Amino acid sequence: MHDPDSRRYSYSGLRTFKQCPLKYKFEYLDHRRTGIEGVEAFTGKRVHESLRLLYEDFAETDSPVLEHLADFYKSRWDEEWHSGVRIVRKGTRPSDYFNHGLQCLQNFYEGYWHSDETRTVVLEGTTVFWLDRDAGREFKCVLDRVALRSDGTYEIHDYKTGRREPDLREAEVQLSLYQMALETEVPEADSVELVLHDLPRAQTHRNRQRRSSLNRIFRNTSELVDRIESERNFRPHPNYLCAWCEFRRICPAFGWRSKVTFFRW
């Protein structure tokens, strides 16, 4: 049960802190809302909604699934589109991102869905585990999909929709934390496989983690939370991601434009 006095963290929050401490403060401590949403995030949400429908409504059907899926994706795109959706990349239009998301769905449907013989046990489920119960530190995970194979192995699936190839090392950390959450909820899950779907490139990456690797990731995560909780300044860290940041207009880094240096990592 969630302790209302606890401090709850997430993978996206920790990633934000590493990218820019000030953005972390704006979003996770001050809870500022700008109404701005990057078109990449908007597209990813619509793809995730559509894949959820795929497993909810079309698991056992002979109907023209891809056609219905495309119709649902378009309807959700039209319903959710708003004036705050921001396009950063020059020369791109909303239709380019719409078609990118549609291609992601087609790649998954044609390249994976037909051969998937697992049983879905979780769809976009939220679960929480303790990083440190005494300190009141919780970690929240939103699992895209958890499936169970006939041999008793649990598969944790995560979907990536970005134009850039996903960083497999970062994805390993994310999915390992999800495995810790699953093992908390399902103690009998002693066989777990991590499955990353790189939808734009129609690639699926599978991995099994050693217990030593899980322990290392747990320690590193706890140490990062130590850093966050001891942080007092939350300075901006200008980098190439600033172009996509919804807080750019209020960021002090852009008050001294000539002094800003952008880092790639």
Give a topology summary.
Blueprint: E1 7-10, H1 11-19, H2 21-29, E2 37-38, H3 39-57, H4 65-80, E3 85-86, H5 94-111, E4 119-132, E5 137-148, E6 154-160, H6 168-185, E7 192-198, E8 203-207, H7 211-230
Helix pairs in contact: 1-2, 3-4, 3-5, 4-5
Span from first to last CA?
A: 38 Å
| CATH fold descriptor | Lambda Exonuclease, Chain A
Report the count of strand segments: 8
Shape: flat
Largest sheet: 6 strands, mixed
| Helix amount | 40-55%
Known CATH architecture = Alpha-Beta Complex
Mean pLDDT: 91
Number of helices: 7
Low-confidence stretches: 1-5, 256-265
Strand content: 15-25%
Radius of gyration: 20 Å
CATH class: Alpha Beta
- Computed structural class: alpha/beta
SSE topology string: EHHEHHEHEEEHEEH
Number of domains: 1
Looking at this protein, list some descriptive labels.
disordered N terminus; disordered C terminus; 7 helices; Lambda Exonuclease, Chain A; 265 residues; two-stranded parallel ribbon
Description:
The protein is built from seven helices and eight strands. By secondary structure, it is of the alpha/beta class. It has one domain: Lambda Exonuclease, Chain A (Alpha-Beta Complex). Strands 1, 4, 5, 6, 7 and 8 form a six-stranded mixed beta sheet that branches. Helix 1 packs antiparallel against helix 2, helix 3 crosses helix 4 and helix 4 runs antiparallel to helix 5. The longest helix is centred in the last third of the chain and has 20 residues. The chain starts with 6 loop residues before the first strand and ends in a 35-residue tail after the last helix.
